[in-house]
Fold this sequence. Notes:
Molybdenum Cofactor Biosythetic Enzyme, Chain A, 6-stranded mixed sheet, 29% strand, binds adenosine monophosphate, binds magnesium ion
Amino acid sequence: MLFPYGTLPFYKPDMMSRPPQESALGVAEAETLIRRTLRPLGTERVALGAAAGRILRETIAAERDQPPYDRVMMDGIALRHGAPARLPILGTQRAGMPALNLTDPSGCIETMTGAMCPAGADTIVPVERITRVDGVATLEPGYTPVPGQFIHRRGSDCRAGEALLSPGTRLSAPALAVLAGNGVAEVAVSRRPRLAILSTGDELVPVDGPVRDWEIRRSNEEAIAASLALHGFGEAERFWAPDDPDATMAVMTRALAERDVVILSGGVSMGDFDYVPQALEQLGVRRIFHRVAQRPGRPLWFGLGPQGQAVFALPGNPVSAMTCFTRYVLPALTAAEGATESRAVPLALAEDAPRLPDLTRFMPARLTHAASGQTLAHLLPVSTSGDFNHLGSTDGIVEIPPGDGAAPAGSAVTFHGW
Ligand code: AMP
Ligand code: MG
């Protein structure tokens, strides 16, 4: 379908009167605008089984003193310090039972790791240091126990009420242990964003169908969905629109409905069939910026929908789409979740990196860990921003600020993992 220039349904007089954003923004400026625009996600309560990897939104305090009682740390015997080397065994203190009482200070009580220390006992001797014959324990000749040894004192790890986890923490494996150990069966975490991924382009066909000479398989949405899944953002609904204004509007309307974030790719460049910015503005998505002074990914468009949806329209070239997604969308989602972590990591260039005088350069990189302890970024030169077939063995992108000449090997750059 061809429209003579100026007759497209999008080119309404009010839109034409709005001056286009002339120059491209800097990377940091673009990031700041995104951060200011994206609304924080709400919270929900989830069972522990569903909490791994989510962002905590409440303070978790110790349920009680930890350990909650003087805990025996060794299988062995409990005695009163100063007792003789031969001690009658007066009972067995197992884990999971109330404390026994060591009434006779010249006797001992057999103990198991994790049991309460028997009342009246103050020292544990490990089983390896004793022999047991006919109900009598004998200490190894010359062995002198240190008073109080192998007793993990009540409250020595933390006191009841002490804050253990703060809001903004990503719930890791040890954090889950803290929750479980402190009786938290359900926890407040950030709600997952409701996401849509929309690809545009007449040439795009699905992965599992026939592909003709002039067609391209859709790959951006797969990469974006994979990154979302790997970073714990859950499922996104997927859409595709051909390069047709009415169809683009119809599909976008569905993609925008009840979403927090919509991620488009393709159709934001300067081509005659790049309808995305106009269609978005027509649907009431206010442009916050269009174009960032970077390579690849200059055409990046970002706006705010009428229901507060954050709309990222990424350039279609796969390297550009992945770069913009990784540099802007992923950190923005992480911030909207209220996470305190930063996804950007400083590390050193393994070799000289070409700089661009006025543009931030993003280059795919593979990381290695040098014997010195330094993590090095090896750059993968990509011939064009469409060349994604060699990205599969890379770990992410490095951000090389504008400058003259090359950034020398060893210089610090910021790395953003895929
Ligand atoms: P565009 O930004 O629409 O001009 O697209 C730039 C290039 O990216 C074109 O060669 C498209 O075929 C390609 N492209 C756009 N969207 C996708 C996609 N979802 N998967 C793979 N390639 C794409
Ligand atoms: Mg296109």
